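Hi R.,

Here's the chain you asked about this morning:
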Amino acid sequence: MNLILQNKIKQNPNYQRFLRENSNWYKYLNRDSSYFSSFEKEMKIKYKMTPKDKLDRLSKNIDRVSQIIDIFS
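And the predicted structure, written out as tokens:
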């Protein structure tokens, strides 16, 4: 694994945590740093950090606020 990739992983706690939980990624990242994009995609899917997940959370929060407003109205 090259130094740039190591620094990216060290600077992001989610990358570190995902790498510890899924140690098979060490092998892929050591062999070829081009796997980093796949690594990042899988991490975002697992920790629900994709744009779709973020929109879903926002929608749920808006619904909650709407329900609270309805209760007090």
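The two ends are 58 Å apart (CA to CA).

Let me know if you need anything else.
M.
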